[in-house]
Write a structure and sequence with these properties.
The structure is a single chain. By secondary structure, the chain is mainly alpha-helical.
Length: 110
């Protein structure tokens, strides 16, 4: 029983922490692909830093399910990004607040 309790405590603590993402490769790749003026690696790093700061302030406002899903999505198919993670979490929170008729459930709004 004790190992189960200890594992559960660890999972709660893990969910309360913002993941450590290595965004150096993300910004390097973004800068290499950028075609916009003023879009370089330093701007990307600043955006990633700002997004992480906002996540530090707002992390507890998101459900564990939202956190887990968005962390997985932010690491999927490329380099991880705090900007993508923050956007995913904000969209998930906004979607949760939609009235039932506005959600994509297959129902037709009245």
């Amino acid at each position: 029983l004790l190992p189960i309790i200890m594992t559960g405590s660890y999972l709660v603590l893990a969910a309360e922490r913002i993941p450590q993402l290595d965004t150096d490769q993300t910004c390097h790749a973004a800068a290499a692909a950028a075609i916009a003026v003023n879009s370089n690696e330093d701007v990307c790093k600043r955006d990633e830093h700002d997004a992480r700061g906002k996540l530090e302030q707002e992390w507890g406002q998101f459900t564990a399910a939202q956190q887990e899903r968005c962390v997985s999505l932010s690491k999927l198919g490329g380099f991880p990004s705090y900007v993508e993670l923050l956007t995913c979490l904000e969209m998930a929170a906004a979607a949760k607040k939609l009235p039932p008729a506005d959600k994509l459930t297959g129902g037709v709004p009245k």
